[in-house]
């Protein structure tokens, strides 16, 4: 890759880093991305703070591959020793908030999209989507945009994976559970203690093993993480509330897991959301085979991304290291961006040409 090409996309990333783009506050970075693409002759569309584009010779009769990454960031944590909005390169590292998660992936995907943009011999269409609110799983990000994009065959989701292939990702259910008892005076052994009633269900969550287990992740995991009950020491509690964190594997759908839980426990169970679905792609899918041929490893990702909002096969891959995400003095190696661009192009060449 020519240095001038790498400099162009490194420069775009620097511009994004220098522009705060916390979730729900991505208007300015959306404008930067929109302007960058248009300056390079690419027609864009925008919905809220989501920017998207199709390849020049888009053909509705062909299947479409979604290239997606996000341009929102978390807020910088208190451990920063550098200005999080000052992008600078030191010892081959580009520092700045969002550099690793997921700015490097986003600019590398844009570079790959632009590489193929003018080709008229592609067997697939390409649709680039730079989306908002990923860090909060917001409803005005990819979920809002997908209906605008038309039919999609599969997706490449740009997240830092050291350019290895995350071919499965856990979904997430957060359950609010309520057990009802009857208040009474503790000294007279009155009432019905809601805490004691809750213990049976809590123990079920701790010990139950779902019959289907994932090849990538093993058993589905459930953890009781919050318990609230009682008002004072001498009053038998009438209500006990507890929260359960459920990490759903690719062997189940969220609604299926919820049904199984409700069949086994006596408490009231309310899911905060069923939107964050588990995702996976077949090991024999062409894009996975292409990655393996490049020497990339496959694995199941423990972290949640916008894959959870897609109902199509998807693979998560990108430059950078997930271990650096959300850390103080976040950075990505410039060479990682270069590798990311090259890997995305090589992957797509194996599928669309």
From TrEMBL:
InterPro entries: ArgE/DapE_CS, Bact_exopeptidase_dim_dom, Peptidase_M20, Peptidase_M20_dimer, Peptidase_M20A. GO terms for biological process: L-arginine biosynthetic process. It holds the Pfam family M20_dimer. Keywords: Cobalt, Hydrolase, Metal-binding, Zinc. Its cofactor is Zn(2+). GO terms for molecular function: acetylornithine deacetylase activity; metal ion binding. SUPFAM superfamilies: Bacterial exopeptidase dimerisation domain, Zn-dependent exopeptidases. Residues 167-265 form the Peptidase M20 dimerisation domain. This is M20/M25/M40 family metallo-hydrolase. It comes from Arcticibacter tournemirensis. The lineage of its organism: Bacteria, Pseudomonadati, Bacteroidota, Sphingobacteriia, Sphingobacteriales.
